[in-house]
Design a protein that fits this description.
six-stranded parallel beta sheet; 48% helix; alpha/beta; 54 helices; 1331 residues; 28 strands
């Protein structure tokens, strides 16, 4: 055989370990065989099959490898090789150590491990093992609640139980713990890994966040998600915004400069708290202020700054798993440094308890396996590991003895090993005799606990094997092991190779972190040679959109055939997702025929669906397109030679998942007369014969169950009709069971033969069930009823299903279960857990189109492949469940809050969820790679949007655009389907991944060019002229000047009689509330006198209409809120107060905390228990945070509790607290200028506010109360008159408007208006004078 240089290097390298990364179709199995033969026939140092260990993952692969070695030895013998030596090896071949990993472990334990496992042990299946695992877990839980688990008290176990149960989707504590046990059993340390993780978490509890394992993941995630768009923004600032700063009167550049430090921290996070503050820094909107409208219009039209800032917000939300906001922090930002440290300690404590519980279970489960002499595969592998590796992690004497027996340890498909299997192989091999073969790009068995990171480390961490590029002669150095790559693909046609390379240059290159993808080593190399390179069409991507989406994408235009064509290109030069849709032109008549199951295709068939239903049945349209194209291929196309026609067996339909998705394709293929071979994955428990058999066994166990009894009576076993059952029920008491009604009916009707026969037989079966095994009972049922013959009448699959049921009944009996009830419980558990028993299918036609899952297609190849359902969303199974596990990171879960009532998300659990989601998406990429590389000549990918997701103009479009534009791991993994990834790749490489709409080619997008914002040499005058033109263009004058000056809404606290007074030359209250126009710098408020510097009330009352939890401003100008006297852009330049890191109490926050207490306190409990007790209750109920409670002044609240006002409130008929209101007032009331009053006649202002308390006395009179936390001087506290004068000076106007609002709402003016001063501890009368 002619080998390539890369293949020859792998075959001929001696005395070194080689970790071979072999791409799809590169001949890795042939190379493995050739390396074995080369070692057996080496002239200088030949070995023997007796010194070879070759391991595969399936029995079929073992048979194939043994067969290949046998054929190669026979060929060498025919060529005249050493006949004696070759004949000896052929005789050794049947007993050579060529086996699966499970068979190898079985053999090792039988020979060396009798002190661990008993003689004569057998391998049980997972279903049987699950039965007694469940029983043992129940006993473990009983021991835990009784305090019998060592080093774990009953109270500790109870707290552990509370901590880990109650999550959505989990039915019981036992199921939760068994799921965790199953996962940990594949780790080297088993359940003891929990202690290892707990130790690590405790050590990290004292480290800065970014120095912990999860903190490093967070920093990397932020860097990857934010750096590309931050770089884009900063470049835009420097090249597009700042150079033209002088062209407009705007503060936008200053806002952007103030924002820049936060952006730089997000692009390269160095400190957790700094990153946290940067994420919470409010991104400017760029469009709100009147003075920036000119900038807004210009930048939106020319540069897209507004859209880029919007993309920044999207990236921020995707990176942190939610919109960063001080009012609602996503989990990744909710915890401070100390919260992280406490979280690590809490997790460590929980894992300790889990370790003791599962350790107790593990010991008893292993002893039960020994007692039964029955072990599942995972337990056998763990037993092998215990035999080969000591507690310190070093090989045992047995392991060294086994390793000395082998000159070569060859393992195929090494990308699919688990951590436990990897440890076993490491123990029985030497550093220089390993030949591990795999392809990380084809690792698709994480659900079987495969850990692709293991093979990724081998291929990425070891040095590359040097070899002569012409001859392939290896030139290894002193290293004991080398990584080697084979990329030539001898399976796929050139167009398929090019297509796959382009798709995965993008996907693996941007997001395949665990792969370490490098184009020069991982890209496929076309290996067929020019002589074999027939010309086939470029692979096609065919998408199906709903009628509404297609119409939207085409601007509402539709062609005569009912299809829409999208033709508008995006402004950034990238075509929208709708333009990479090739909507299959499937007629409504065809769709109707398929939906109706009408093979004639008659659109007038009775009951045919409506036009609307047909148009949006996307799975049906997809299936029809696939079936029609297959029919065309069979009728018109040939193989490579141009002569041999394609046959149905040459075509495969692959799908990520087959569950619930086969029917449209099977019926569509039947419509076009195409034979199909279905996958043999039918659920054993759903077959009719098994349903009937289980129903009969259930009735034998308990005849009082009506539903299974009715099923048996109406089945072919008894042949009763529903009318007969109705008659039986009519003659009996409706409250008694159906069985009792049947007995009474038979007693009254001696001639009812069917009933009497059934009751006699049932009584006999029930006696049999008491005295014999379940297997014997099943066999007698088959012999004495027509069940077995009925199954045979329907064909052999049903008959073999019944034989399989008997087999499992025998297994059940052999496992020492007792009774029919136990067997039925066992069957029920397997059915509910969706366990797939091996249900034998019928013989499929040999010449038929095969429908396979992508997993089942691995190792196969077909001339034509259709990958269907490509628009289906990805599975989120890895991200759900109580416990999230990762071999490297540990185990995480959500923990309860201090009340024990709520299970809270935490950043460690969120990061684990995101890590597992990313690993799941990487596996989806590898599944896509496997699917696409099954095709030899022709490849089609079809799909439609999953659920309500739109391919155009919706979330899918946004995800695709983000993946293309920023090429980051975070944005690429955010895509939701294969279709979105392919659409993104098509945008990047339109000429190599051509996509069409309704058969029309989409032209490659024009290159993306940014506008030239610099001043080229010699063009300064032209730039100046254009700038002046823009200035004049935007220099608009309002025709009516007084209307734009009116704010949309105002807070009561901002109202004064002179609110609208003043000219352009003087400052007015309104001028202070709006940004300065035409470049003027807005002035700030005059500082208050020194005696009132500690003022907690003024900041809070800057907005009576705001949420008092946040104190956000609500007083607004024409477009946006602004506090009186505040810098209109201050909120852009300043971090939220809660995240500045300041430790001094903020007066605003103190005022808010005080008002929170007064709003939510229970007056009765406050009067009875005091302030401290009520404060603790509010904190426990999450009405206040601990930080807010610490800001209040308890002595002032105690004074309020003792005040006359509090007594009046308790005696009132009703007290309305935090009473929100709004009203319209005449604008003319807020100016003293007669001319202005005339112009504003008829105009109104929208006023909003919040009354702290409104007391409704028993007589119906109103008392309005406003709490004030203003600080008073010592003199003012001693002299109430001075205090009242100060408070009225500040708040009398506000209280006048409050009183007016109360009068309008309740129809009567407040009898009293009071200002309650917390500092003074008393009320002051502020009742407005009667007008």
């Amino acid at each position: 055989m002619n080998y390539t240089p890369a293949q020859r290097a792998a075959i001929e390298c001696r005395d070194r370990s080689v970790f071979l990364s072999a791409a799809a179709g590169s001949g890795k199995t042939a190379v493995l065989t050739a390396r074995v033969i080369a070692a057996l026939t080496d002239e200088h140092k030949p070995t023997s099959l007796s010194r070879l260990l070759a391991v595969t993952f399936t029995e079929a692969a073992t048979v194939e490898m043994r067969s290949r070695i046998g054929r190669a030895l026979a060929e060498k013998l025919r060529e005249g090789g050493d006949s004696a030596a070759l004949s000896r090896e052929l005789r050794l071949l049947p007993v050579a150590d060529i086996s699966t990993i499970d068979a190898f472990c079985h053999k090792i334990l039988r020979r060396y491990g009798t002190h661990i496992v008993p003689d004569g042990f057998r391998v049980t299946d997972a279903a049987e093992a699950e039965g007694y695992r469940a029983d043992l877990m129940e006993k473990t839980l009983e021991a835990g609640y009784a305090g019998r688990i060592p080093d774990l008290t009953a109270d500790e176990f109870s707290r552990l139980s509370d901590a880990v149960t109650g999550f959505n989707g989990e039915r019981s504590l036992g199921e939760v713990l068994l799921g965790l046990y199953e996962k940990l059993s594949t780790y080297e340390g088993g359940v003891a890994s929990l202690d290892t993780y707990a130790d690590r978490y405790l050590a990290e509890a004292d480290k800065p966040v970014f120095e912990t394992s999860f903190g490093r993941i967070l920093a990397a995630r932020v860097r990857d998600g934010m750096a590309p768009i931050v770089k884009n923004l900063l470049t835009m600032f420097e090249t597009d915004v700042y150079p033209l700063e002088s062209a407009f009167d705007s503060t936008l550049p200053d806002i952007l400069r103030a924002w820049t430090p936060a952006l730089r921290e997000l692009a390269a996070p160095s400190d957790y708290e700094a990153m946290r503050r940067a994420a919470l820094y409010p991104a400017p909107k760029c469009t709100q202020k009147e003075s920036s409208k000119k900038w807004s219009a210009y930048l939106k039209e020319e540069d897209g700054l507004k859209s880029t800032v919007k993309e920044f917000r999207t990236a921020l939300e995707e990176t942190f798993g939610g919109k960063p906001s001080p009012a609602a922090l996503p989990p990744l930002l909710a915890y401070g440094e100390e919260d992280w440290h406490r979280l690590y300690r809490d997790l460590a404590e929980t894992l300790r308890g889990l370790s003791r519980t599962l350790g107790y279970f593990d010991r008893r489960y292993f002893e039960e396996c020994r007692r039964r002499r029955a072990f599942d595969f995972t337990t056998l592998t763990r037993a092998t590991y215990r035999l080969l590796v000591d507690e310190a992690g070093n090989p045992t004497d047995v392991a060294r003895e086994i390793a000395d027996r082998y000159d070569m340890v060859a393992v195929d498909e090494y990308q699919d090993v688990s951590p436990l299997q990897n440890a076993v192989f490491a123990a029985v091999s030497k550093p220089d005799n390993r030949f591990f073969v795999g392809d990380i790009k084809q690792s698709i068995y994480r659900f079987r606990h495969a850990e692709p990171d293991i093979f990724a480390a081998l291929r990425n961490d070891y040095p590359r094997l040097p070899y002569d590029p012409e001859s392939g002669a290896p030139h290894p150095g002193d290293a004991p092991a080398y990584a080697h790559f084979m990329g030539e693909n001898f399976r796929c046609d050139r167009e398929v190779v090019n297509f796959v390379n382009r798709v995965f240059d993008f996907l693996f290159g941007t997001a395949g972190a665990s792969i370490g993808y490098a184009g020069e080593t991982d890209a496929l190399v076309f290996g067929k040679g020019d002589a074999q390179a027939a010309v086939f069409p470029v692979p096609q991507v065919v998408c199906f959109a709903s009628e509404k989406e297609r119409a939207d994408a085409a601007g509402g235009e539709r062609t005569a055939g009912g299809e829409s064509i999208a033709v508008d290109a995006a402004k950034d030069g990238l075509p929208p997702a709708a333009e990479v849709l090739r909507a299959g032109a499937v007629s409504d008549a065809e769709t109707k025929a398929l939906l109706e199951g009408n093979a004639s295709g008659d659109p007038d068939a009775e009951g045919a669906p409506t036009e609307e239903n047909v148009s949006d049945d996307l799975p049906t349209r997809e299936a029809l397109y696939v079936a029609r194209e297959i029919r065309r291929l069979l009728d018109e196309e040939t193989h490579t030679d141009g002569k041999t026609p394609l046959r149905p067996r040459d075509i495969a339909i692959l799908s990520r998942s087959l569950r619930g998705k086969l029917t449209p394709f099977v019926r569509a293929l039947a419509l076009y007369g195409v034979p199909v071979a279905l996958p043999e994955e039918e659920n054993f428990f759903e077959s009719p014969e098994i349903l009937l058999a289980v129903a009969l066994l259930t009735v034998i166990d308990n005849p009082l169950l009506d539903i299974p009894l009715a099923g048996v009576l109406c089945s072919p076993l008894c042949r009763m009709t529903p009318d007969t059952l109705t008659e039986i029920r009519r003659e009996s008491d409706p409250d008694i069971p159906l069985f009792e009604a049947l007995r009474a009916y038979c007693a009254a009707h001696p001639d009812f033969t069917a009933g009497h026969t059934f009751l006699t037989l049932l009584a006999s079966f029930r006696r049999e069930a008491e005295d014999t095994s379940v297997a014997h009972l099943v066999r007698r049922i088959y012999a004495e009823t027509t069940l077995y013959s009925l199954a045979g009448a329907d064909g052999r699959p049903a008959e073999r299903n019944l034989k399989l049921l008997y087999h499992y009944a025998c297994t059940f009996a052999g496992a020492a279960y007792e009774g029919l009830h136990g067997f039925l419980a066992y069957i029920q558990r397997q059915s509910e857990s969706d366990t797939k028993f091996k249900s034998p299918g019928g013989s499929a036609p040999e010449d038929a189109v095969r429908i396979l899952s992508v997993h089942a297609s691995k190792g196969l190849e077909f001339p034509v492949v259709f990958l269907v359902n490509a628009g289906s969303g990805f599975s989120a199974a890895d991200e759900t469940g109580t416990f999230l596990c990762d071999h490297a990171l540990g185990v995480t879960l959500r923990l309860r809050d201090r009340t024990g009532q709520v299970q809270l998300e935490n950043p460690v659990h969120t990061l684990m969820k995101l890590t597992l989601r990313d690993k799941g998406r990487e596996e989806e990429m590898r599944l896509l790679y496997v699917a696409l590389t099954r095709a030899r000549e022709r490849l089609y990918i079809t799909g439609s949007a999953a659920g309500n997701t739109r391919l155009s103009g919706g979330t899918a479009e946004k995800r695709v655009t983000g993946a293309v534009r920023y090429r980051s791991r975070t944005r690429t993994l955010a895509c939701g389907s294969y279709l979105e990834w392919l659409m993104a790749a098509a945008k990047l490489y339109p000429s190599e991944i051509p996509c069409t709409v309704n058969g029309e080619e989409i032209a490659p997008p024009p290159p993306l060019t940014a506008p030239d914002m610099t001043a080229p040499e010699g063009k300064e005058a032209e730039i100046a002229r254009l700038t002046e033109q823009l200035r004049r263009q935007f220099a608009l004058t309002e025709a009516v000047t007084h209307i734009p000056r009116l704010p949309k809404k105002l807070a009561v606290s901002s109202l004064t009689p002179r609110l609208l007074d003043g000219t352009e030359a003087e400052e007015t209250p309104l001028a202070r509330m709006t940004p300065a126009a035409d470049g003027e710098t807005p002035e700030t408020d005059t500082p208050r006198d020194a005696e009132s510097i500690d003022d907690e009330e003024a900041p809070r009352k800057a907005d009576d209409g705001a949420d008092t939890m946040t104190g956000a401003a609500a007083a607004t100008d024409n477009t946006e809120s602004a506090a009186v006297g505040a810098d209109p852009h201050e909120k852009y330049r300043r971090l939220p107060l809660a995240y500045t890191g300041d430790r001094e109490p903020d007066p605003t926050e103190r005022g808010i905390a005080t008002h929170q207490f007064l709003q939510f306190c229970d007056f009765a409990k406050l009067a009875r228990d005091g302030v401290d007790a009520e404060m603790r209750r509010l904190v426990a109920g999450a009405f206040l945070t601990e930080a807010q409670a610490a800001l209040t002044r308890p002595e002032e609240l105690e004074a309020f509790r003792a005040s006359d006002l509090f007594a009046e409130m308790r005696a009132a008929r009703e007290v309305k607290r935090e009473f929100r209101f709004h009203m319209f007032l005449p604008a003319a009331d807020f100016t003293t200028d007669p001319e202005e009053k005339r112009r504003l006649a008829g105009e109104t202002l929208f006023i909003q506010g919040v009354m702290d308390a409104l007391i409704i006395a028993p007589d119906g009179s109103l008392t309005l109360v406003d709490y004030k936390t203003d600080r008073l001087t010592r003199a003012e506290r001693k002299n109430p008159a001075l205090a009242r004068e100060k408070l009225l000076r500040r708040h009398s106007e506000q209280m006048r408007y409050y009183a007016e609002a109360a009068k309008r709402i309740f129809g009567v003016a407040p009898k009293r208006v009071l200002l309650y001063s917390l500092h003074a501890g008393r009320s002051f009368d502020a009742t407005p004078a009667a007008e």
